[in-house]
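Treating backbone geometry as a discrete language has practical consequences that deserve illustration. The sequence in question and its structure tokens are set out directly beneath this paragraph.
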Amino acid sequence: MQHTQEKPALLGGTPVLTEPLGLIHNIADEEVEAATRVLRRGPLSGFHGTWGEKFFGGTEVRRFEKRFEERFKVKHAVTFNSATTALHGAMVALEIGPGDEVIVAPYSMACSATCVVNNGGIPIFADIDDRTFCMDPKSIRQKISKYTKAIVVVHLYGQTAPMDEIMAIAKEHNLKVVEDNAQSPGATYKGKFAGTIADIGIFSLNVNKVVQSGEGGILATNNDRYALRAQLARNHGESVVDDIPDYDAGPLFGSNYRMTEVEAAIAYEQFEKLDFLNGKKKELAEYLTSQLKDIPGIITPYIPPENTHVYFSYAIKIDEEKLGMSRDLFAKAVAAEGFPMGRGYVKPIYHLKVFQEKRAFNNTHFPFEFEGYDGKPDYSKGSCPVVERMYDKELIAIFLCQYPRPKSLIDQFVSAIKKVLAHKEELMAAA
């Protein structure tokens, strides 16, 4: 391509992409009309904090929940104001508390682990598979102790973890399983929708997700007790349990995790477009794979035969020796050409200060250390070597394969990569 002979932008040349990549905004007339309908008609929230029909939300919330149940073939969909609060709702639903260990993923948003701490439990981090970047069942098995009560599995980047193996481990040790499916709505594992396989599934409607309402989350389950406890957790449940006939779902206290009517109306219209948007992302991602697969040192996404991938982001691995330059310099140089690249995705969660110092609640060490719990959670650096290697040297996450971006943008991205690699010696000399 013509760009390969030009000076790299990092060395003062002209970038391949001269205009910044804009943020994707996939809101269309349907969402505008739905939001306007609610704004004109009101109310903006249909929740009441007392027991009765409106304890479960307004017209739009319940309409969206019903549509979600139909779409994903689950008995209960419980909306929340974020996937973060839905994850906490899952911990409440499963009755996780002080002294309970929950095995979690180290490579995710922090909330995939801090949801456990929010309910007084102790996160225990299992390592990831170096091909799919999802949790490794072998590491999960090694982390089980007498205190283990549940597993929070993260389906990362758009495909699922190996759920048959994980569910078999859970059954063997009488553990509950939560699927954090914020990044993979519509993905399947052996024909089953991600987020519907385990005891509870969590979905996200954050602005950065493939379908969104700005903020929002959904907890999906086929268990009546879990659904009720989640509904109580989102709406000040401690205030209403005495008024519920024949209530037997145990003590709890809740918060205000409620979704607004405007968000629910927008979310309904967005979910109607899920298959279309996933299909467009898949087209772009598969085209990008075809363009990258023969470049030495770039390892394109691995998809197990039992999985379908919906490409929340496009994750590649870098073999620095074969590439002929470091991952970080490569990413920096491509970013200078106009294509930002996420080096390493996010810091392993257990590297965060809250875990390194074991201080979550002011100056106490609760829940990591307290009378009645003699577990030894290991948050030392090096405890999950695969995820640390991905973060430090190998992984790059790219948010490029998004509708309505055209294939021509993929061509420009590949051109930027080839331009950088054609001048790697000069780049390394100047680094």
The chain is about 35% helix and 10% strand. The chain has a mean pLDDT of 96. The longest strand covers residues 148-154.
